[in-house]
Design brief:
The complex is a heterodimer of chains A (about 425) and B (about 450).
Chain A lengths: L13 H11 L9 E6 L5 H11 L3 E6 L6 H13 L12 H15 L6 E6 L11 H6 L1 H5 L4 E7 L16 E5 L4 H8 L9 H15 L6 H20 L8 H17 L8 H10 L3 H6 L2 H7 L5 H15 L5 H5 L4 H11 L6 H4 L4 E2 H11 L8 H12 L3 E4 L8 E4 L3 H10 L13
Parallel strand pairs in A: 1-4, 1-5, 2-3, 3-4
Antiparallel strand pairs in A: 6-8, 7-8
Helix pairs in contact in A: 1-2, 3-4, 7-8, 8-9, 8-10, 9-10, 13-20, 14-18, 14-19, 14-20
Chain B lengths: L18 H16 L10 H17 L3 E6 L6 H15 L7 E6 L6 H11 L3 H5 L6 H11 L11 E6 L1 H4 L6 H12 L4 E7 L4 H4 L2 H6 L4 E3 L8 H16 L13 H14 L3 H13 L3 H13 L10 H12 L2 H7 L3 H16 L7 H14 L8 H13 L3 E3 L13 E3 L3 H10 L5 H8 L4
Parallel strand pairs in B: 1-4, 1-5, 2-3, 3-4
Antiparallel strand pairs in B: 6-7
Helix pairs in contact in B: 1-14, 2-3, 6-8, 11-13, 13-15, 14-15, 16-20, 17-18, 17-19, 17-20, 20-21
Classes of the chains: A alpha/beta (about 425), B alpha/beta (about 450).
């Protein structure tokens, strides 16, 4: 008699599990040609699917399309996972025809005609970039291979609509994984509770954490990482005996700058934990740290020499000001006239700051450089190599590769970066920027 | 609602189905839904007869011919051919003496592969292996030669079925098609070539020399072409009934008692006069006539049958229909973080102001900052976090780059928004726990 299969328990994904089980879980029943699982990144698509397939004892092959970037890699990986051992070189598959042939041979040898074989393709949106015949063929694998129990399961965080224009794809059964709600996220994060602390203490922390992070990020993997990273900091003063475990107010005061700093570093996974901790603990540098944003730290990390700083500022001005304005800006004028220039340009439709940098040639760069720097360094090889090294650092972009033409450049750093560099020189950039309001 | 919680008891023999019966029914129905050729052929009797006579003449009299079967995707072209073959298998004496070669444009991507496929299906790989041929034509004619024994009457006839025929037209020089049609026309060996395609203009793709060898026989399959909406809906419901009812002559499942079978079929009769079910099907038909979507729909409905849900109810229909009809773009937008949703709103305003001109990150960011200054509660928008959010939207393909040149800096690359205003506003409406200023911003006329 057909018994109802055991259903795996996946937190917050009960409905999706039930649906997958009802489609795949009854031995002896036909399976659909293709299933398309879609949902946001890290909404548990692969995890749920693997759990279901494992608990149903379904033979499956799972390939990520980032790895299988060529059809051959894709096919061989699928075959070897279905057999359970590496495929011999005689069974090389260069194209879908050989793949189907091998699949049939495997099915014959292992007597798989009556058992479900699932082919799981993660990141299946990448299949669109391969041979245009590959995806339609894979989606019809059941029909083409005459194996009645083959089911292709596509996973993607891109909608099915985006697959459709290539045409000729049979509509798959779609299962949508909704994004976790705030409560779901709290439930999942509380799974990572460390042993040494009580549950409500940890859940209090998670409430604070989620309140800060959820606005900018709902990616559960990233949230888990960040929650674990910050929890140790949260507990530090308790371990040292400075703050009582029940004094949530003080704990919040202690953790909130950490959380804010950590929010800026989201997805980056810099190992900055120690540095921040020492600065915060010393107390005095605390304020200074919180005013320094991560972009400032990035800008200062280059430790550019004096002339190079002026050069990059000059490059920025050359990129974001039209050459027409140069005369007005850089020829010494009285303050009154300068104001007029600014007023006139405040009415321009779109600021050039949002339109991106323009190209400029070396002469213009040097001209601006000499007008903004107080002393007049001699033009020398040393000065010109500074430009090359700025290009090497990718702060400047060289445009055009024609060796006969005079070199042209583009500034590759943003306004924030320049502001910080200018601050170190106590130089007022905004004075020279036409579009700055 | 006819959920029957008590029926799991074995004593309850009166009206309800037993769980064991439901399992068998589910299995039979899944087979019926997922394998179109398992059911008796419906509709298009004329086209069916055409293909049947074409094949029959090729098999019985060794008559060579070529034809194209044209019809939109999912209208049952392959099913028709499979049903024809099945019918021939039943009553054609010459069936065992003929070979059917199936080629598919997706699989046999060039002529070399196609030839290999032909050799495999004719079971002639061994003979082909060690021979060297000058040309493709020689190769093919050798293969066909192998099937000849003595005079014309005793030659095995071969039926070539070329699915996705249009893709074969893109092969270099159309060598395969040329040779196949050439053989078919010059009566070298009895072969019948049937191309199946969804492209109506497929004959325009054929080269002149190929075209001249093609018999120009076209069989068109347009099952929905002339029907009115009302007729269509009626046919739809009939089709659903056919797919979901179990025929009494079904001998594959002896476990199923006649009583259970009748119970199911009467239950079904009641189901398809229910206004909710009819509305669901009508609604779906108004969106798509594609039969595959209907099969998916019915499969999901049938999948809901289980030990504690023994009958299909109208609610099942309406729930599955809602699930399938859901606009996933909106659902995806609801799953974004507040920051990402704010970015979408900025893009929406940007599009409104600049008449859907492409935008870059800086423009959207500037707009977001402006909103941030106006709103009472300042949210800490760090530039890098916003960049990440922007990139997330890009990877979701909610925004698409105008050009893919790598010369432009990341912040200044131009994008188009792939969502419409209504979708974004719907997502804003449905979003749980969205700050009021954000939703006000989304609905304001921003200028």
């Amino acid at each position: 008699m057909v018994s109802s299969p055991d259903i795996p328990d996946v937190l917050c994904r009960h409905q999706e599990v039930m649906q997958l089980v009802s489609l795949l879980g009854h031995p002896g029943e036909s399976v659909p040609q293709s299933i398309f699982l879609t949902g946001h990144k890290s909404s548990g698509k692969s995890y749920t699917l693997m759990k279901v397939l494992d608990s149903l004892n379904i033979r499956y092959a799972s390939v990520n399309c980032v790895e299988g970037y060529m059809p051959r890699l894709l096919f061989e990986s699928i075959l070897s996972q279905i057999v359970g051992e590496t495929v011999p070189p005689s069974a090389r598959c260069e194209n879908i025809m050989e793949f189907i042939l091998q699949l049939k041979i495997i099915a014959d040898n292992h007597d798989l005609h009556e058992s479900v074989i699932a082919v799981v393709l993660e990141g299946s949106d990448r299949l669109r970039d391969m041979n245009p015949n590959l995806l339609p063929a894979l989606m019809r694998l059941q029909e083409l291979s005459c194996l009645k129990k083959v089911c292709v399961i596509l996973l993607s965080d891109v909608l099915w609509d985006k697959f459709a224009p290539s045409g000729g794809l049979p509509p798959p059964i779609q299962i949508y994984f909704p994004q976790y709600s705030q409560n779901d996220i709290l439930k999942i994060l509380s799974l990572d509770k460390p042993k040494d602390y009580p549950a409500d203490f940890h859940s209090n922390y998670l409430q604070l954490f989620v309140a800060v992070f959820l606005r900018s990020c709902r990616d559960i993997t990233e949230l888990r990482y960040k929650a674990a990273e910050n929890f140790s900091k949260y507990c530090e003063p308790i371990e040292r005996g400075e703050i009582d475990i029940n004094d949530s107010g003080k704990l919040w005061k202690h953790i909130s700058p950490h959380l804010k700093a950590s929010l800026q570093m989201i997805y980056m996974r810099f190992e900055t934990g120690k540095k921040i901790a020492t600065e915060v603990d010393s107390g005095t540098s605390m304020d200074k740290h919180s005013t320094l944003s991560s972009s400032a730290k990035y800008a200062l990390s280059f430790e550019l020499p004096y002339y190079a700083k002026y050069l990059i500022i000059a490059a920025f001005l050359a990129s974001y000001n039209s050459p027409k304005e140069d005369k007005k800006l850089f020829v010494k004028l009285s303050g009154r006239n300068k104001k007029k220039v600014l007023k006139k340009n405040a009415q321009t439709k779109i600021s050039s700051l949002v339109m991106g940098p323009r190209q400029f040639d070396l002469e213009r760069l040097l001209a601006i450089f000499y007008s903004i720097i107080e002393e007049k360094p001699h033009i020398s090889v040393n000065l010109l190599t500074q430009i090359t090294s700025l290009v090497e650092l990718q702060l400047l972009q060289k445009a055009g590769s024609d060796p006969l033409e005079a070199p042209k450049y583009k500034c590759a750093v943003g306004f924030d970066f320049i502001i910080i560099i200018a601050k170190t020189l106590s130089f007022n950039v905004t004075k020279y920027l036409v579009d700055y309001k | 609602m006819s959920r029957t919680p008590k029926s799991s008891k074995p004593s309850d023999k009166g009206q309800a189905l037993k769980p064991s019966d439901v399992c068998v029914i589910r299995k039979i129905l899944k087979d019926q839904i997922l394998m179109p050729s398992a059911n008796p052929f419906r509709g298009s009797p004329k086209e069916f007869a055409d293909v049947l006579s074409l094949f029959r003449r090729a098999m019985e009299h060794g008559e060579s011919n070529s034809a194209l079967l044209i019809g939109p995707r999912g209208c049952g072209k392959t099913t028709l051919v499979e049903c024809v073959i099945e019918a021939l298998q039943r009553d054609c004496l010459a069936f065992d003496d003929s070979v059917i070669v199936r080629l598919n444009g997706y699989v046999h991507m060039d002529d070399r592969l196609a030839l290999k496929g032909i050799a495999t299906q004719l079971q002639l790989e061994n003979t082909l292996g060690d021979k060297v041929f000058g040309s493709f034509a020689e190769n093919l004619s050798f293969l066909l030669q192998c099937l000849k024994e003595g005079d014309r009457e005793h030659t095995k006839s071969v039926i070539f079925i070329l699915e996705e025929f249009d893709l074969f037209c893109h092969h270099q020089n159309q060598t395969l098609l040329y040779n196949l049609f050439d053989v078919a026309q010059s009566a070298q060996a009895p072969i019948c070539v049937l191309g199946i395609t969804c492209r109506k203009d497929v004959t325009d793709l054929l080269e002149k020399r190929v075209m001249s060898r093609f018999s120009n026989r076209q069989i068109h399959l347009y099952p929905h072409a002339t029907e009115t909406f009302e007729d269509g809906v009626k046919n739809r419901i009939q089709l659903c009934k056919d797919l979901l009812s179990i025929r009494s002559d079904n001998k594959k499942h002896p476990q199923l008692s006649v009583r259970a079978l009748q119970l199911w079929n009467t239950h079904l009769e009641g189901l398809f006069v229910n206004p909710i079910v009819v509305d669901c099907l009508k609604d779906m038909y108004a969106y798509t006539v594609c039969e595959r979507s209907l099969r998916n729909f019915l499969l999901l409905v049938i999948c809901r049958l289980c030990d504690d849900h023994l009958e299909v109810t109208p609610t099942d229909f309406s729930e599955v229909s809602r699930q399938m009809r859901r606009n996933l773009r909106v659902a995806f937008a609801e799953g974004l973080s507040i920051l990402e949703l704010c970015l979408l709103i900025s893009m929406m305003h940007q599009n409104e102001i600049f008449d859907s001109a492409p935008f870059n990150f800086e423009m959207v960011f500037a707009r977001l900052l402006k909103f941030d200054q106006h709103s009472s509660k300042t949210m800490t928008v760090d530039r890098q976090v916003v960049v990440k959010a922007f990139e997330h939207l890009k990877s979701l393909e909610f925004i698409r780059p105008v050009s893919t040149s790598s010369q432009v800096l990341k912040e200044f690359q131009m994008f188009n928004l792939m969502l419409i205003t209504d979708e974004i506003r719907e997502a804003v409406n449905n979003y749980q726990g969205l700050p009021t200023e954000v939703s006000q911003w989304a609905f304001s006329d921003y200028t």
